Recover the amino acids of this structure.
């Protein structure tokens, strides 16, 4: 199928042969699709943009669209440890409580282990059972087939698959076939229009907060590339995607609260850790004169 524009509308038309089909996702296709998706999503979320910011917003959105072909799913996915999934043996009462507490419209369901996701539950399908508790509840009969994608899939490719299959959520798997995370349509759109918040989203601490000129408090899940862009540093991002991944490697063990480790002239202090999961990190750069530095 080919997306093209006619009279301001997106038209789908079949290609003549397999040989004529484009081998790569075309930027124009993505732009046309995104225009439709973004406007629909913004309208649904009741997002408004002041007139004086429209020009800058449009420029940033175009840059975001073009970047979709260079970003992969792993860079924007919700990591495995943050997935709100339920086991297929969960009771209706407990499930309803989880739905109310978490506010998600789609929930992955697994059997035995998170690496064995058997389907996606649409919360709206629970309504008949909530209204009439006499109905026999079997979660497996409500599940929709899960859609699995590799970590390396680019965002423009995933967006077109979401559109083609009318999906909003995908399960991300790593090179070994294990579940690495999940990615949603909203995650992709936020790469273009910025963070989208609704009435179910709680106030969150920013991923990066400036403490001083050369010091920042960051979420361990902050990507190294975003940190470098924000701070002007040049931490290596070839082997690790996040600050937390780099810090774990530097420690070579599970760190404790307030422990510190250094990479050249950059120090990392653990502000918060729960179990094996690092929460917040204090990053401080010590300026170096007359030498190559990481900032």
């Amino acid at each position: 199928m080919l997306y093209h524009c006619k009279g301001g509308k997106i038209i789908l038309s079949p290609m003549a042969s397999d040989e004529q089909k484009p081998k790569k996702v075309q930027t124009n296709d993505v732009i046309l699709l995104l225009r439709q998706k973004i406007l629909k999503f913004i309208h649904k979320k009741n997002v408004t943009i002041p007139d004086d910011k429209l020009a800058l917003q449009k420029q940033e959105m175009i840059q975001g669209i073009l970047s979709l072909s260079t970003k992969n799913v792993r860079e924007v996915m919700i990591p495995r440890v943050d997935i709100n999934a339920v086991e297929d043996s969960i009771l209706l009462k407990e499930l309803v409580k989880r739905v109310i507490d978490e506010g998600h419209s789609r929930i992955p369901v697994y059997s035995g282990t998170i690496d064995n996701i058997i389907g996606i539950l649409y919360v709206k399908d629970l309504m008949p059972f909530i209204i009439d508790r006499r109905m026999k509840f079997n979660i497996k009969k409500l599940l929709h087939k899960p859609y699995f994608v590799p970590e390396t899939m680019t965002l423009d490719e995933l967006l077109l698959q979401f559109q083609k299959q009318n999906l909003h959520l995908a399960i991300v798997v790593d090179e070994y076939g294990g579940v690495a995370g999940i990615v949603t349509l909203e995650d992709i759109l936020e790469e273009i229009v910025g963070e989208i918040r609704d009435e179910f989203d709680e106030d969150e601490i920013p991923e990066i907060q400036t403490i001083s000129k050369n010091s920042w408090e960051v979420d361990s899940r902050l990507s190294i590339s975003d940190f470098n862009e924000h701070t002007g540093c040049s931490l290596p991002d070839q082997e690790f995607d996040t600050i937390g991944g780099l810090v774990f490697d530097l420690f070579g063990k599970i760190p404790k609260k307030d422990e510190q480790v250094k990479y050249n002239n950059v120090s990392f202090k653990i502000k918060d850790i729960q179990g094996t999961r690092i929460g917040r990190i204090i990053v401080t750069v010590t300026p170096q004169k007359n030498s190559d530095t990481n900032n």
User: Anything to note?
Assistant: The first helix runs from residue 27 to 45. The first strand starts at residue 2 and ends at 6. The CA atoms of residues 129 and 137 lie 7 Å apart.
